[in-house]
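the two lines:
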Amino acid sequence: MVEQAHNQSSTKRPALYLAEYDTPNAIAKAAMKVRDAGYKKWDCHSPYAMHGMDEAMGLKPTKIGFISFFFGMAGVATAVLMMKYMNAWDFNFLDIGWGYPIIVGGKPPGAFPSMVPIMFELGILFCGFATLFGLLGIIKLPRHNHPIFESERFEAATDDKFFISIEAGDPSFDLDRTKALLESTGPTHLELIEEAA
Amino acid sequence: MTEANSNTDYRVGNDGFWARAWVAPLVLAGVGGLMAALTAGPERLGYAYLFALFTVVTFMLGGIFLVLIQFLTAAHWGVSTRRIVEVVMSGAPVVALLAAPLIFGVATGKVPIYQEWQGEGEHGAHHEGPSDEHGVLGLAASVAQAQGHEAGHEGDDAGHDEGHAHTAQETKLHHEVIEAKTGYLNTRSWTMRAIIYLLIWSVIALLYFGWSRRQDDDHDPKHTLRMQSLAAPLLIVFAGTLTFAAFDWLMSLEPSWFSTIFGVVIFAGSAVAILAATILIGLSLYKRGLVGEAINPVHFHDLAKLLFGFICFWTYVSFSQWMLIWYAGIPEEATWFHKRWGGGWMFVSYLLIFGHFVAPFLLLISRVQKLNLRWLQAMCLWVIFIHAVDIYWFVLPQAGAFRIQLADIGALLFVGGVFFAYVFWQLGRVPLIPVGDPRLQKSLHHYQTH
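prediction for all of em together
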């Protein structure tokens, strides 16, 4: 597959620059340079989580907290409406008589305390799903492939090397200027990865 | 990071505020002590003192918990803030001293707050038969009055209570329930257990504080290993003593009532108290530059996350306890909450729901809120206040209708003042972070920003 792709060089276009570094310090300094150059579609790859990289990359706080909170509260509201509808409200729809207030344990129909466990459970459920799927949406997963895996050197990203990738889709991306910027950060290796057009 | 280390020896030294910080609580303690002693009789003073003492006990117990759990999990995130917790924990002997008058008063019958079960032994001897009515319960008259709603009654509305005489049957049943517990609830064993709890807490606190202090000098990891291996069994001892102390000191105010989760509720409150206190003390040290970057906003963020978690945990167990009793609606269980729903206490109950859960939940949930140190400081002050209200709500409804007295505030000032005077004085004597801990370096480089 890879060999085939390489052969059809005429239909290729640049996908990203991949710069390789040996030390966490080097990549942190390089990341600050890329950040200050105003790139948006770029990423750092390291074998382990590096403290302080958020700041070095200038990442904004994630929105996942807001998504979780909003959906958690939506779950709570859903539980209230559901319990009120199922246990408390007495209403007549087209003379069919849909409402069916239920008295349990001598408590009034739809007593608030008896709803709290359901509010808690649905709040957690909605919050959990929203967190999972919101996260998948934000990080754009699942996807089948990414041009970065064309690089054989990139396998070391899970071993002992550190990488910065700048994608061609970035508005500031320019074959020469981006290359010059990355070279100025002193990478041990720099390559342009192409993908099929 | 290393530059910051050499700038400071992590001691209070001549800092204008912390070198003399212990004076203020001591003055407050003196004022409060006078205020309490002059304005209340032995019974009300007993309730007020119990409230004040147990509030301080929760800080100390929370400290023991936080230290033990960090050793148990071999945590490095909290090493640099551990000294503050250790100092609060090391106040256990001070708590024991402060508890001495109360224990003495209860043991000699001079403080009649536990009269309902203390009197039960004599009651069996002097008043036999089902003819007993209101006045001959063998209790202090005041306690009988406080027991507006006796266990074993139908759940009357407050308005009906005055005309409601106890039937002979009800009185007899009530006494049988309490009498069955006198094997556990009697003055002699209550006193002995109280002394044992305080002894165990003091030993744990002094051992761990002592080892940690010795490690400051010799930097020997063997202390860490020893504290680590003892943490698990001691946590079991801690859980047992906390639970039974809560039973003995708070739950037995209403001896016919029982709740198995009671100790867990108290534990949740203890964790909330110590986390808020640690953040407050740490923030002050940090802002005055006494700890360099050894304690930094990331540590406060971590503590705030735990604080938020334990506030939710407190809500979870408190609500569980309440809902099961509400749902079953059995008079002997409901009586305890019934007392906290009438006589002016309903406001306090709602204050706890909104002040101990809803407000802190919404005001501490976001990362932005937790990382805003001024905001966090205000929230911690509020949480400590509402924690005291929580303990107040456990104790004082047993004394009758809701009426804050000078004695309550005075007792809290006295006990809290003496305790925190010790804590602040001790902070001035020791390094503010455990400088000999082998995990300290990891904690110092703990600046992960999420």
